[in-house]
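USER: I would love a firmer grasp of how sequence relates to backbone shape in proteins. This is the protein in question:
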Amino acid sequence: MNQSEKSLYNPGLHKLLTLQVKDETLLTSLENFQEFSKNLINDFNLEIVGISHHSFDSNGYTMAFCLKESHICIHTWPEFEQLTLDIYLCNYLKDNTQKVEALSTAYKQFFNAEVLNETNVYR
């Protein structure tokens, strides 16, 4: 790969979301989120290389899916009816921008969420 080709490379879209969620069970059920995410990851032909999670005393949770393509991470605050979600897929072999957008939409629908903040970082 020559220098010109290297300078044209677009590493991918990194989407950061803060969502308001009224249904507390969605913010406290790590198992439901994990099952939904695994199905989405499978539907989008992504590959899980690791999963880590923790449940908090407030019944909130944090979970990270490490993907061959990068990651999906969540942190919930049921006491504030909020969550933060981080979705990044790199474009190493193909442009995954539309997958990031579709994953984001699917999660907003899953949580029946109001978007408080949505930031797109084009790496």
